[in-house]
Specification:
The chain is mainly β. It has helices at residues 2-14, 32-36, 50-53, and strands spanning 63-75, 79-83, 93-96, 100-113, 118-125, 129-133, 146-163, 168-185, 188-189, 195-196, 199-217, 223-230, 233-245, 257-258, 264-265, 268-278, 281-290, 293-302, 309-315, 328-332, 338-348, 353-362, 380-391, 394-411, 429-446. The chain contains three helices and 25 strands. The longest helix is centred in the first third of the chain and has 13 residues, at 2-14. The chain is elongated.
């Protein structure tokens, strides 16, 4: 009974996890041991988080294993200094996003039969997430764009692995994803004397399927080479709830919503959909052990070209006649494929105690021409330390991580359209700064 209660708590935590650290909004924080080694874990993959990092690594485990963990994230709000189309297109402004406290949990179960070389297990984790929010949607200098976005995903990943011989192991799994998203937007109108047109809130959820596979080579006793591929997801957020409130009067057209009977309203609800194309990933890594020291290196690709645009359709089901409020948008993103370089070391001080350190070079996939305030991404340098300790059948792993987000200067501001009631004003000219830090904890038990 306790196990089911704990699983329920973990699922709730997974569905409240939202942030963005790896290039774009990918979350590699799926195991504290791997995190302490800069996520350079594709070739080592020797704890239950192998389900995520390389399923072929499950053949290295013994017996039954359970691991439960969480990563705490302190996301310091990004700071912007520059100009936007809102209020005054040429005056320099500044704004800081809200600082957020977030949690990214993980849970794994594995079983390995040493005599047959067969292993299986299931993992539950959050591979993608995005959370950004501005202090006041009604006064933000970005209020003509998205002022709050909260993307949460959960993946259930049943996995099998097989040790073909002493040289080669393989593994594969099926991925079921559940995702939900929220966003807020407050268009701003020059024709209204700088007033807001309305407040829009969208909430939607959906599901998607994917797959993953990996292999592990052991050319020598001390050398391991690993590869891991995870497929893309097409997450369709269907029949979302859309609420519009504080609708202002006419501005370059009929902005105040009017029914066929002539009754005007300043708020109403309708439905909307969105499609999010999440990228495939591929990692190639090597691990070499020299006595008590293990050195790892990974090249990790994220194929962000799938995120070419963000289509959002809002349907006005009640309005009689054309509605200037509700439109289909397909904002161009045109993100680029990137390769992160990950390095990690582990030193086993004693049989139960291990110390770890890692570094990641994490380039941004977001081109300057399409970068928006919902994710002002930049290239990052990540610095990690960690430790692990074994107590009988128990294993405790901890890790800390500092994300040094480089300053990003962008000039992509677009002026307001001729019809400010349906404003196309977007972008910004200025510089973003920001950083964050994380702390991870995993507790494992071997049966």
């Amino acid at each position: 009974m306790r196990g089911w209660k704990l699983l329920s708590v973990l699922l709730v935590l997974l569905l409240t996890a939202s942030t963005s650290f790896a290039g774009g909004f990918r979350l590699p924080e799926q195991g504290a041991k791997a995190m302490g080694m800069g996520f350079a874990f594709t070739a080592q993959a020797d704890d239950p988080s192998a389900i995520y990092f390389n399923p072929a690594g499950l053949t290295q485990l013994k017996g039954q294993n359970v691991m439960i963990g969480v990563t705490y994230v302190r996301l310091n709000g990004g700071e912007f200094t520059g100009t936007t189309p809102v209020d005054n297109q040429t005056a320099s402004k500044s704004e800081t996003q809200k600082s957020l406290d977030l949690f990214i949990p993980n849970m794994y179960y594995t079983k390995t039969n040493a005599s047959t070389g067969f292993a299986y297990g299931v993992g539950i984790f959050a591979p993608f997430g995005l959370g950004q929010e501005y202090n006041d949607r009604n006064t933000s200098i970005f209020r003509n764009q998205v002022t709050k976005i909260d993307l949460q995903t959960m993946v259930v990943n049943p996995t099998i692995a097989f040790k073909i011989n002493e040289f080669l192991s393989v593994g594969a799994g099926i991925d079921f994803m559940y995702g939900k998203a929220k966003l807020e937007k407050t268009p701003w109108s020059v024709a209204l004397g700088g007033a807001n047109v309305y407040n829009l809130d969208l909430k939607a959820d959906g599901t998607a399927w994917g797959y993953n596979f990996g292999l592990l080579l052991k050319p020598t006793e001390n050398l391991r080479i690993g590869a891991n591929y995870r497929s893309p997801f097409t997450l369709k957020l269907k029949d979302g709830d859309v609420d519009l409130s504080n609708i202002t009067g006419a501005a370059g057209g009929a902005v105040q919503r009017t029914f066929g009977n002539g009754t005007a309203v300043t708020s109403f609800s309708t439905k909307g959909t969105a499609t999010l194309n999440l990228p495939a990933t591929f990692a190639l890594g090597a691990s070499y052990t020299m006595g008590k020291l293990t050195v790892n290196a990974d090249a990790d690709w994220t194929f962000w070209h799938s995120y070419g645009s963000l289509p959002i359709e809002i349907r006005d089901q009640k309005f009689l006649g054309p509605s200037p409020l509700l439109v289909t948008t397909n904002a161009a993103k045109n993100w680029e494929d990137v390769c992160a370089l990950r390095f990690g070391v582990e030193y086993r001080v004693t049989e139960p105690l291990a110390l770890r350190a890692g570094f990641v070079y994490d380039p941004t996939p977001a081109p300057a021409s399409t970068m928006g305030p919902e994710l002002p991404d930049a290239t990052k340098f990540d610095y990690m330390v960690g430790a692990g300790y074994k107590i009988g059948a128990w294993t405790i792993d901890v890790a800390g991580m500092y994300v040094d987000k480089k300053n990003r200067t962008v000039n992509n501001q677009v002026n307001a359209s001729a019809n400010p009631a349906d404003p196309l004003a977007s972008g910004f000219n200025g510089t973003w700064t920001g950083n964050s830090w994380l702390a991870g904890l995993d507790v494992g038990y071997k049966f």
